[in-house]
Amino acid sequence: MNVRTANLHRRLMWRLIPTLFGAIALGGVASYFVAKRSVDFAYDEALTAAAADIASGVHVDGANIRFDLSPQSEHILRSDARDDIYFSVHQEDGRYFGGDRDLPETGPVTEGGGASSDLPFRERIVRAMSVRFAQGATPFVVTVAETTRKRRTAAWAVFAQLMLPTTLVLSLACLIVWFSVKGGLQPLDELRTEIEARSELDLSPIAAVSAPQEVRSLVQALNHLLARLDAATRAHQAFVADAAHQLRTPLAGIHTQIELLATTVDPSQAPTLERLRFSVDRAVRLVNQLLALARSEKDADTLRLKTFDLAELVAEAADSWVHRAIAAGIDFGFDLKGGKLLGDRYLIREMLENLIDNAIRHTPSKGHITVAVETKGSHVEIALDDSGPGIVPALRERIFDRFYRAEVTGTGSGLGLAIVRQIITRHEGTVTARNSASLGGLQMVVRLPVHGPAALQADTPPPNETAASRIETTASWRRTESC
After folding, report:
1. What is the pLDDT of residues 109-150, one digit of tens each?
2. How far apart are CA 291 and CA 240, in angstroms?
3. Of 318, 248, 334, 328, which Cα lies nearest the Cα of 290?
4. Which of 189, 248, 339, 351 could form a disulfide with 423 if both were Cys (CB 3.0 to 4.6 A apart)?
């Protein structure tokens, strides 16, 4: 169970389970007192019967009273396997007739009635019963007492018999509460699973059909938030795409004018013209990257999925940068073992060109770049190694952030690797930056599922091209850099 829901589960259980155990404890205390009272009542009846037997030995002859109890009868009376028995017979004025003279009375009693209590006697606690009898006009009191061993034993036995079913019932109640709470929180687990399974690009509403009434208000609030986020995201993407697209025409015009001006300008102005051409090229590259980023951020269902040979695409993408590699004195190497892939061919090419451009810009003259493609199980793996300076481990995640550049100098805009990760994420793949074991620089490892994104496992016809999604460039100013 996920920790978020588990916390709520534990919170509920910490409130319910102690309450049930508290009920068990209170029930145990109550059961013990009920058991003790029942046992005392039964044994007090036995003491009352013993007092009646003793009273039968009292004889009244006029003003004379005598107590006549044979040694055999007294032995039988005092015989008990576990407790000691004591008794005394006396008048209300304190005149003693027989038994244990120092045995105290329990308290005032009425004729035929009795009073019982726990009394200290001979450094022990005894249970005493005093009963008032009368023969003719002569009243007398018989007190019988015993130690409490068998009472305690019997009370605990009754208590155990009372507590066993109570404990079983309450333990079963604890289990029922545990599983009931767990089952009651299951819709939250399902909701969490559904939300965690989504990509950051999926802002569609969450289905609330199976959610309980108490959770539906939360789901509705989340759906309202997702709708607002979706609207804001679409507006942002449309703005970036429209703005970038509108900039292309004037930039193309400026570039054309520079080419025309280069044929008539004074040679002394050539450096200034070259700097101007470089600035325009950077602006053109940035516009192209903004358009690529806007397209890569569109909803997953707009991917134009087709099955193609990734090795061929790598060769095509690499070929477009060969002239830059030759000019920089960099050796390109390939290890293409083939790999069929279901994906958006245009976006995958855009991703590859950005990776290769990034490697060329950071690899010194007489360096090496190797591009390898291989199918491994259910994924196609692209490994791009270079002999550049590499990236320290602390920055290997930050280089994929937008507009982040590891070096202060340089001509990159900081969008190339952000586009790479965005495209790979849309294809439900992964990209990892690490040290190159073969060339000593940086290695970019891209893993893409052979069968495409799980949500779109079939070829889809390409949608109609829009102005925002077209990123054609003229031959004179097609991308010279992507990162």
Report:
1. 655 567 778 888 888 888 888 888 877 777 888 888 898 888
2. 7
3. 248
4. 351
pLDDT at 20: 78
* pLDDT of 266 above 80: no
And the tokens for 35?
């058991």
The structure tokens listed for 175 are 């289990």
- Answer whether 424's CB lies under 8 Å from 351's CB: yes
DSSP string spanning 166-227?
HHHHHHHHHHHHHHHHHHHTHHHHHHHHHHHHS-TT--PPPP-SSS-HHHHHHHHHHHHHHH
Question: Residues of 11-22 as b/e, b for ≥16 C-beta within 10 angstroms?
Answer: ebeeebbeeeee
pLDDT computed for residue 472 by the predictor: 32
Asked if residue 116 lies in contact with residue 106, where contact means CB atoms within 8 angstroms, the answer is: yes
Instruction: Give alpha helix (H) positions in 56-132.
Output: 71-78
pLDDT tens per residue across span 16-73: 778 877 877 887 888 888 888 888 888 888 888 888 888 888 887 766 777 877 777 7
* Residue 336 structure tokens: 């293409």
Name 138's bridge partners. 135
279 close to 255: Cβ distance less than 8 angstroms: no
DSSP 18-71: HHHHHHHHHHHHHHHHHHHHHHHHHHHHHHHHHHHHHHTTEEEETTEEEE---H
In this prediction, residue 241 carries a pLDDT of: 67
Q: How far apart are CA 161 and CA 365, in angstroms?
A: 92
- Cβ-contact 374, 380 below 8 angstroms: yes
Q: How far apart are CA 384 and CA 482, in angstroms?
A: 16
Alpha carbons within 13 angstroms on the beta-carbon side of residue 450 total 11
Q: In this structure, are strands 58-61 and 64-67 parallel, antiparallel, or unpaired?
A: antiparallel
**433 in Cβ contact with 391 (< 8 Å):** yes
Assign 4 to helix, strand or coil: helix
